[in-house]
Write a structure and sequence with these properties.
Elements lengths: L2 E5 L9 H15 L3 E6 L12 E3 L4 E5 L2 E5 L6 H11 L3 E5 L6 H8 L4 E6 L7 H14 L4 E4 L2 H10 L4 E3 L25 E6 L8 H12 L5 E6 L5 H11 L4 E5 L6 H6 L3 E4 L9 H8 L4 E4 L2 H4 L8 E4 L4 H13 L1 H16 L3 H35 L1
Parallel strand pairs: 1-2, 1-6, 2-3, 6-7, 7-8, 8-9, 10-11, 10-13, 11-12, 13-14, 14-15
Antiparallel strand pairs: 4-5
Length: 390
């Protein structure tokens, strides 16, 4: 049994890619008999009753990478973190985004005995915090015994600032939860219309404006489709107002849906669209749609090319090109057999990202880190004994 402390910088009560990764990886490791505690900021604090959660810090909204992250910026947690580390005596500290303030980097700084593994999730053109903070952050980065990146783009991005030996291990999904046989969510399908689905936070980088442009082009020449938009965010009112003012037909905004309802919404669609503009290190939502047997039309950004091959599980189009997106969607609308073929291929591809397979690779990194930490502890004792051996 390995005692694992899983550290996340983000509010554990809010949905998000890193939080879901931490949650599912922790569950898979527990199923294998390992002890896993999650250290994360949480809006509910000590009142929360979540298995294995040790809430540390109060999350506040903070602009990050074209979105809003809810992280703790308090550096007054030192005493509490030191107490938790001493009490829990973790074998491995698995720190997600280990150089982010304030919880991850504080845990990394205070750790004395646990093997430290860092997983880097983010991808962007640049990170000013990394750039200007390199002299300080390098010292903390050296405390990591092993490094993981969730994709090749994520690896390239972080290695630009902190060169090192990174193991690329992708995000995982649950192919039993996301499955073509999941009963579709009631009230979405229309027997007269083929359903195009968007699911994501309504902010600029998710690219819904491009999809609305593409859908508007489609509806100028055909009447056999509808667009269903799932998600909430700062741009929702603007999108709804545009649809209303421009009279774009058969567009429905369903708002936020809980994580547990996502599979049923995906199987209620015929085509899944991801018009994202960039800053995605990995296409988890693409994998979830693929596991649900749905063909995907997505922008050809680095993170999406990691999981989808153009012409196999779906179609890739240039970023921000509404004309190409409209043509790709139209092709799938015209060929139901192609949708089925791509859906089957997508399902097969998605199964290779199942959490048990991801956990196997993570555990290999844990063992490497434990050996690395052990060798570091032995080396000083050998050096101290050397004078007496002469």
């Amino acid at each position: 049994m390995i005692r694992v402390g899983m550290v996340s910088p983000y509010d554990y009560q809010r949905p998000g890619g890193v939080g879901e990764h931490v949650r599912h990886l922790a569950e898979e490791l527990r199923r294998r008999g390992h002890l896993v505690k999650v250290l994360a900021p949480a809006a509910g604090g000590e009142r929360l009753d979540v298995e294995g959660l040790i809430p540390l810090g109060r999350p506040i909204p903070f602009p990050a990478n074209g979105s809003v992250a809810r992280i703790s910026l308090s550096f007054h947690l030192t005493r509490r973190i030191r107490s938790v580390l001493a009490e829990e005596a973790f074998d491995v500290l698995h720190i997600h985004e280990p150089l982010m303030p304030a919880l991850p980097i504080t845990v990394l700084r205070l750790n004395q005995t646990s093997a430290a593994v860092g997983t880097f999730h983010a991808y962007a053109r640049q990170n000013l915090g990394y750039y200007y903070g390199r002299p300080i952050l390098r010292r903390q980065f050296r405390h990591l015994d092993a490094c993981i990146a969730v994709s090749e783009p994520a690896r390239r991005f972080v290695a630009r600032y902190f060169p090192g030996d990174y193991t690329v291990i992708p995000n995982g999904i649950d192919p039993q939860r996301f499955h073509p046989e999941v009963p579709p969510q009631a009230g979405i399908r229309d027997p007269r219309l083929t359903t195009i689905l968007f699911l994501g936070r309504l902010e600029e980088r998710k690219g819904l404006s491009t999809l609305l442009d593409a859908y508007q082009l489609l509806r100028q020449v055909r009447t056999d489709c509808q667009l269903v938009v799932i998600g909430d965010g700062p741009l929702r009112r603007g999108y709804e107002r545009r649809v209303e003012e421009e009279g774009i037909p058969d567009v429905r905004f369903l708002g936020f849906v809980p994580e547990e309802e996502k599979p049923a919404h995906l199987t209620a669609a015929d085509i899944y669209c991801a018009p994202n503009t960039g800053k995605e290190s990995f296409g988890v939502i693409l994998l979830e749609a693929m596991a649900s047997g749905r063909p995907v039309v997505a922008t050809a950004i680095d993170g999406f090319r990691q999981v989808l091959t153009d012409g196999q599980e779906g179609l890739l189009v240039p970023k921000g090109d509404e004309g190409q997106m409209a043509r790709a969607v139209s092709r799938l609308l015209d060929h139901p057999d192609l949708r089925l073929q791509m859906g089957r291929q997508g399902r097969a591809t998605a199964e290779s990202y199942a959490w048990p397979l991801v956990a196997d690779r993570v555990l290999q990194v844990y063992r490497t880190a434990l050996r690395q930490r052990s060798s570091q502890e032995v080396q000083p004792s050998v050096q101290q004994a050397a004078p007496g051996l002469r």
